[in-house]
Amino acid sequence: MAQQSQAVAYAALLLAASNTPLTVDNVEKLTKKAGVNVPKQLAAAFVKAFEGKDIMSLLSVGGGSSSAPAAQTTQAAAKPAEAPKAVEKPKDPEPEEDVDMGGLFD
Asked: In percent, how much of the chain has pLDDT > 90?
């Protein structure tokens, strides 16, 4: 089953990369050419899961966990670069005081 699922996933990627519609028939054709016998139900479930979604855009964003982070990333990339802010000068560290340890290391 894992090999069949993987074959369907690769077929979907190939179809998306070649701008070919993701249909059950196209998935079955590719998996048969690869020598993997895939049940029609598996191909249909995969096609239904990605119906109306652009697979290549899901990959370019880094995954498809949710669309909100993708929108935030795109908006952040579209903003013009701001001038660097002035960096505050770190304060000089205060000198350490010698603390009497009660002769612990004498």
From this structure: 4
